[in-house]
Amino acid sequence: MATVYQIHPNSPQTRFVDQIKDDLKSGAVMLYPTDTVYAIGCDISSKSAIQRVRRIKQMSNDKPLTFLCPSLSNVATYAFVTDTAYRTMKRLIPGPYTFILPTTKLVPQIVMNPKRKTTGIRVPDHPVCLALLNALGNPIISTSAHVLDQNESAPISVEKNGFFSQAELFDHLEKLVDVIVDNGEEPRYEGSTIIDLTGETPEITRQGMEWETAAAWLG
Questions:
Q1: What are phi and psi of 159, to 5 degrees?
Q2: Average pLDDT, whole number, for the chain?
Q3: For residue 194, pLDDT beyond 80
Q4: What distance in Å separates the CA atoms of residue 72 and residue 101, rounded to the nearest whole number?
Q5: 82: confidence class by pLDDT, cuts 50, 70, 90
Q6: At what angle do helices 211-218 and 83-92 cross, to 10 degrees?
Q7: pLDDT at 203
Q8: Which of 43, 67, 124, 188 has its CA 20 to 30 A from that of 74?
Q9: Left (φ > 0), alpha (ψ -120 to 50) or beta: where does 150 sit?
């Protein structure tokens, strides 16, 4: 059964942040809120935790995992950022955007696309995420908390007439994760906008939250 931390949405309590940080450093997998959807994640340095995340999401090892960084300067530690990519990211972060970038050697093989050597990176506009990132000192894996039910017929975060509430989402995942971060807010259900920065010009490959803002700026 997961440990639930009830954390303030705007001013996360330091004691809870430190406890979650210790859990993550010990290899915990957590369910947590972001500025887009609720996400399943872990410390990027814990291979065993990343493998568990993949099992929960039923993801093959050749599908890259997105991770969160606290700032643009931190992104440059884990990805090769061209001048064009830098200008794009500086304009749009923090916010609901995932940037596809070529990785540095600090990104584990189990996280990246094995053929392209790329991954998705986000800088969230979310107090809880940023508090956890700064406390942990490592990026945090972030994949949407939409997993298949036991019959593998439908995402368990979606019900016939809409979406599960926060309580229902917690109930479905509490036996699969070690930590649940509860900031008292209902889940959002629109994912991030994905922008591929591996080419000469940025390309929006998925329209998610605030994609119109990115499209307008990219021209």
A1: -110, 175
A2: 91
A3: yes
A4: 13
A5: very high
A6: 140
A7: 97
A8: 188
A9: alpha
Torsion angles phi and psi, residue 88, rounded to 5: -65, -50
Distance in angstroms (rounded) separating the CA atoms of residues 124 and 118: 19
Residue 160 near residue 153 (C-beta atoms within 8 A): no
- Distance in angstroms (rounded) separating the CA atoms of residues 102 and 117: 6
pLDDT value, residue 106: 95
Q: Give the integer Cα–Cα distance in Å for 89 and 85.
A: 6
Neighbouring CB atoms inside 10 A of 52's CB total 19
CA–chain centroid gap for 40, Å, is 7
Q: Residue 1, exposed/middle/buried by CB under 10 A (0-12, 13-18, 19+)?
A: exposed
* The residue type at 47: K
Is the preceding peptide bond at 94 cis, omega within 30 degrees of 0?
yes
Residue pair 73/12 in contact (Cβ under 8 Å)? The answer is no
